[in-house]
Amino acid sequence: MSESKITKGDLVDAVYKSTDVEKQIIQKIIDSFLLHTRESLETGATIELRGFGTFEARLRKGRSEARNPKTGEKLSVEPHYVAAFRAGQLLKEKLWNLKKEDEK
């Protein structure tokens, strides 16, 4: 598996190359999509993208005793929400058959 990182700019370039839409318009669309996705999660909504996966705000339970891994300091953690992603069936199948670098 490649350890490369895909940035938002890379996504804009990829869409630009596969369509005849201006880069500025693609950038606005992607920014708008991400903004609406974030705002929806902030309100507790679940975002389902068929064939890809589901984003949701998931409650993580707190701990009365936790440890800061950097400093070793003991502290307590309140229950809080985190963004969670569940891959859809098609994505799961594609990733399941992904080969590791040393298997190629």
Automatic annotation (TrEMBL):
Protein name, entry field: Integration host factor subunit beta
GO molecular function: DNA binding; structural constituent of chromatin
Stored Pfam families: Bac_DNA_binding
GO cellular component, one term: cytosol
Job description of the protein: Histone-like DNA-binding protein which is capable of wrapping DNA to stabilize it, and thus to prevent its denaturation under extreme environmental conditions.
Secretion signal, residue range per the UniProt entry: none
Family label: Belongs to the bacterial histone-like protein family.
Species classification: Bacteria, Pseudomonadati, Spirochaetota, Spirochaetia, Spirochaetales
UniProt KW keywords: DNA-binding
Organism: Treponema bryantii
PANTHER family referenced in this protein's UniProt entry, alphabetically: DNA-BINDING PROTEIN HU, INTEGRATION HOST FACTOR SUBUNIT ALPHA
